[in-house]
Amino acid sequence: MSRTFLGLPPFGAASQTATTNTQLRHNLRHASHTIRDRRAEVVTERADWPQLRAAGAAIKDRTLRHLDHYLEQLERAVTAAGGTVHWARDADEANAIVTRLVHETGEDSVVKVKSMATQEIELNQALDQAGITAYETDLAELIVQLGDDLPSHLLVPAIHRNRSEIREIFASQMHRWGRGAPSDLTDDPHDLAEAARQHLRDRFLKAKVAVSGANFAVADTGTMVVLESEGNGRMCLTLPQTLISVVGIEKVVPSWQDLEVMLQLLPRSATGERMNPYTSTWTGVHAGDGPQEFHLVLLDNGRSSVLADEVGRQALRCIRCSACLNICPVYERTGGHAYGSVYPGPIGAILTPQLGLVDREVARELPYASTLCGACYEVCPVAIDIPEVLVHLRQRSANGSGHRLERASMAVANWMLADSTRFSWIQRAASAGRHLAPRHLPGSWGRAWTDTRNLPEIPAASFRSWWSSRTSSTSGTQRDDRHD
User: Counting C-beta atoms within 10 Å of the first and last residue's C-beta, which end of the chain has fewer, N or C?
Assistant: First the structure.
């Protein structure tokens, strides 16, 4: 089974290693520039793009403000359509629900549609421990799985691999998971795609259980929506007898009218297409048509905590288009693995720490994995102000950490500044002893700092004292003038 992100080093150390990998940087530069150029072309076709973007942000904000209402509406609609809704507070609970549901079917394998939510909770690993094999059917996810690798991009998980590397993975590993690659396989994209197609065809025809996520969930009808480009999702969503969808609670949209806006924003921002090739929608179950058993697992896993943060909650607007990754100069040079999370790039730098998906050391460094250039905000289709959230998280990180001496110094400063009389007394004392002030700070770090910098002179009187004496003098003159 594919490895997890657990145990990867913090961004600082990981990025130093990544930036020395010239092949990785070449792969990333080529792929990200290709996608961003296509996106820019189709976005400029829309004269109303700013208004469309603002509408998308407004829809997400309105939904998040009333999320409890829309989730309950979604549950009622799914249930009325013949589906079953399960609520999962965290990853362990979600994994337990899915594992139980698969065991109840008597099957020991599932086919999967590409899903960030299932990667977030590490569902494949949980199923493996329960004796259930999860087969990825998205081409990029298949490459990652066969290569015992980690995804490095929201949309193109194998973006860090080139054609030659993919050919070697298929040739050496594909037979271990099912039908093997042809002996004469080349690195031509058509040949690689055909090898994957033949490998997956048996899985689609034999699968009894499928697991998916959803790009959107329409509250008023209970409809799930998946967008994809290969057709594998359509096969997984229609052929098996049982369908289990793990969906983050933030994926809800109120109505089909709101969905219409999102379906214009997402393809253009994600792949540079006016419309994605496959948009699959399903509402509950229908006799003789598609899966006869549908389970919706609504996943919290930290989202409620993010919702409580007035600044950070805008990260929940994200529709997983990856436009921010493709434009980010940091991601282009480090790749996704350096972020140590299933959510890489700028959105990962704000979403991962808030969801608590990594340990504290990794989470503390992620908000600093940015130049704050603002390019991510400019391309975000739902106007998430990622730089604002990054600064917010940096402040929160600084408030909760720091050296003991630094924390003690801040405590003393707080004590001094909290009372005006106390502060004035300290200022007068500092002015009186200004000739005793050292010219160099102690310690090696202090000497290194002050050897090349002059400490500012302490004035004979503080500004407050000077202003007070000046004001008194002026007031006395005015009183004398009035008396005359």
Answer: C
